[in-house]
Specification:
By secondary structure, the chain is α/β, with parallel strands linked by helices. It contains 15 helices and 15 strands. Helices cover 46% and strands 22% of the residues. It is globular, with a radius of gyration of 23 Å.
């Protein structure tokens, strides 16, 4: 607490004064305040804070948007969320912030009291320690471009099964880097590096070719299922992308209907117009479009309705443990209902437990993907997996 730097953001003068007084009482040494999200952002860009206490309902820039900026620009170590609205809404904003990598110390219904605030702030030490533990050394752009040239990047495939009957509808292709010394490096460690250092175009083109060749191999062996491929938001701004994907798919003798392109919901928030144009052109050519990681960011139903997608992938943050968390269960249920209204096929990601699987079945989510059914695997393992594990699971769960 001795060095703690905290910013209170609330449009109501009374509420703001009240929160500042509480903070002083419990001994927060460095306090600032702002009347709305835009002013808060200005202050944070000048000097970051340890904790930002945010009211959700504010004019000019509301708390949800402010939290998104704080997460993306890493302007604070953590947030505390306050609102007079119902607890389910507050909790869902909290879930989204955490999925964006911004720890939430507490989500509180107003009025806040001293004990709650003290408890919340105590969490800061814990989340800061966790953050340090999980930071891994980043790979350098040079290492990545060498790996690309040496052919050390490949794909693993994770099955997507129908919740009813456990039919193999498709697989998602996931990038893997096999380093002769370091072993397997996960995409979390190199996709962002590729994006920041101009390597994402080369990487995407290389991997899509690998995926299409693999699909062709499976086709030759008489197994047909959809292959989903992840596109970086940056690729959506590449004007040559659509024609390139279409011609490469045709060269491999693959109908576009059998390929799904996954784009994260956050990709749809920025350069919306050009991204939507790219996606619309892909849809016109017959490809499927999936909105990935839904529920981890801040896209709303109205934004989704403008995207020419046919599939909604519900993020692990909303799925994992939903069976035992009533609020999360409600949010998940509402998300499924919204997807249905928008006529989107639903896919639940990150299903790890039987209870969550049963819940998703009950909610009639169409497709299930997660460790509970299968982990991502090399291509040559997939057919064997279908014959052994999948057959066994159908007997047990079908
Ligand atoms: P994603 O597209 O959301 O992919 C799903 C991630 O969740 C994968 O992580 C997968 O291994 C993991 N996963 C699947 N089921 C479970 C589960 O039950 N529990 C848990 N805890 N995790 C599960 P992975 O392979 O590490 O990929 C991470 C992210 O990297 C992907 O998230 C995607 O955004 C990105 N990525 C992967 N391959 C590519 C690629 O070829 N191109 C681009 N642009 N991005 C890629
Ligand atoms: Ca994906
Ligand atoms: Ca995802």
């Amino acid at each position: 607490m001795s060095q703690l730097n905290l910013l209170v953001v609330d449009d109501s003068d009374t509420q703001r004064e009240y929160a500042l007084a509480l903070c002083r009482e419990i001994g927060v040494p460095r306090l600032r305040d702002a009347r709305n999200g835009a002013l808060a952002l200005e202050q944070l860009r000048q000097q970051r804070a340890d904790v930002v206490m945010v009211d959700l309902e504010m004019p000019v820039m509301d708390g949800v948007e402010l939290i998104r900026h704080i997460a993306h620009e890493t302007l604070a170590k953590a947030v505390i969320i306050l609102s007079a609205k119902d607890p389910v809404l507050i909790a869902s904003v909290g879930t989204m912030a955490e999925a964006d990598g911004l720890p939430v110390l507490g989500t509180f219904n107003k009025p806040l009291n001293q004990d709650l605030l003290r408890c919340g702030l105590k969490q800061l030490a814990r989340v800061s320690a966790e953050k340090v533990d999980t930071t891994r050394p980043e790979v350098t752009p040079n290492q990545l471009s060498n790996a690309l040239r040496a052919g050390h990047l490949s794909l693993h495939y994770q099955p997507k099964l129908t919740s009813k009957g456990l039919l193999l509808k498709g697989v998602e292709a996931l990038a893997r880097w096999h380093d002769p010394e370091k072993g397997t490096i996960s995409p979390g460690q190199f996709i962002a590096v590729a994006e920041r250092h101009g390597l994402i175009g080369t990487l995407t083109r290389h991997l899509l070719e690998v995926a299409l060749q693999q699909k062709q191999q499976w086709q030759k062996r008489g197994v047909n299922f959809n292959v989903a491929f992840n596109l970086s938001p940056l690729s959506l701004a590449d004007p040559g992308l659509v024609d390139w994907i279409a011609s490469l798919t045709a060269q491999h003798g693959i109908p576009p209907q059998e390929i799904t392109l996954e784009v994260t919901e956050n990709a749809l928030l920025g350069e919306l117009a050009s991204s939507i144009q790219t996606l619309a052109r892909l849809r016109l050519k017959g490809f499927s479009i999936a909105i990935d990681d839904y529920g981890s960011g801040f896209a709303n139903a109205q934004q989704l309705s403008r995207v020419p997608a046919n599939e909604l992938k519900i993020d692990r943050a909303l799925v994992h443990n939903a069976a035992t968390r009533p609020q999360q269960h409600t949010i998940l249920q509402n998300t499924v209902a919204m997807a249905r209204q928008l006529q989107l096929i639903t896919v639940a990601e990150g299903v790890e437990h039987r209870e969550d699987f049963e819940l998703l079945r009950q909610l009639q989510v169409e497709l299930i993907q997660g460790y509970f059914l299968a982990k991502p695997m090399p291509a040559d393992k997939l057919i064997q997996w279908m014959q052994t594990d999948l057959a066994r699971m159908r007997k047990e769960l079908g």
